């Protein structure tokens, strides 16, 4: 028998409120920026409509910032996938029951900020929203499932974006801390694992940071800030906004440790891998530099300070980070307890290519040694082991993989879904993860594959790009019964968990 994982290992799955929960206008919930995003077939086709200062309607795409004076609107006749998503709001008992049947002992989920504070700046929280998550956590605990809760997951309140300009404004720190304190107070007896923010290294624009363009915003991209394709025009504004967010996360770390016994609170990054295209020194060092653009954020959150190389990145944009009194102290004294991360694929850096490479793995040169998913994502299980070792070597703190998986098109045949391709992907990745833990000594807390029950794709807004062990009857236009159907991978993952990863 192959070596198994530690007995305390957390097996589960992961979802996000904006892609899974639905109920966007129920229970006193307010509008989030994700509610303003139309469906599409790829990232640049998803739109956020607005009226400008003169009342004229226009739109931006994901990752862009709104012009000053713009009013985001819901356009009649457009489909907005987050509004119903796959309706966990009304199916949570059924869905958590399915997780329990698979043997989950953990479930990574995100809280919708606007379900707790509809506009983001209220003095008092929305009790109906708080009660919903009480019910969800109680249902999890009834089945022996440990909730792992993300506080901020692509979930910018429209109210805070419109009134304050989002994370470009330091006032966001106070609103985030009020929100966090309410969560810690309410759920301290039910939730021991927290994640302050999802994939901080790929945040940008109105959707995730709530930012607006300045009138004199630069339009020239001077260098490969991550992720270049999705940046607002002002790279400097992005870094300053993310500084405010990291300071807020550090204050939340402090607060959690003061309020919750035995709490573990971490940060989370998109950390799929990157390889040099050749052994040419410019390819090798270029890949290294790109990787540091993602690791900059985990360096700050895990180590407690900005690394020396941050200055060279900021200098590319003539940017000088504005620090307030106490910022360095809070970052230093209250780093994250563990690093959560997503891993889907690897990408290739080519010094001669015009293709933008991002260290989350979104784009890059094709790797001739790897097969791809239907959406063109390279499948690289060995890269998973590499990244696990890379991160543990760098930080020597526990890791948690809170997203992994492949998006694919599932077909129902005689009421069943035969997803051997998903089983093969996950089998290889779990085997690589097991090698990292048992052979390499990586301290890994748990493994939560993405979209364990089908949800809407964050990038494309599609339903046909499915990740789950459970099929949800819904199409790309939002039509369907929302019925749940177990896939073949459901039964396979159940057996993996039952053997604690020893039998794949």
From TrEMBL:
Single GO MF annotation: beta-glucosidase activity
Gene3D superfamilies the record matches: Glycosidases (3.20.20.80)
Domain of life: Bacteria
SUPFAM superfamilies for the chain: (Trans)glycosidases (SSF51445)
GO process annotations (BP): carbohydrate catabolic process
InterPro entries for the chain: GH (IPR017853), GH_1_N_CS (IPR033132), Glyco_hydro_1 (IPR001360)
UniProt GO cellular component terms: cytosol
PANTHER family: 6-PHOSPHO-BETA-GLUCOSIDASE, GLYCOSYL HYDROLASE
Family from the record: Belongs to the glycosyl hydrolase 1 family.
Pfam families, alphabetized: Glyco_hydro_1
Protein name: 6-phospho-beta-glucosidase
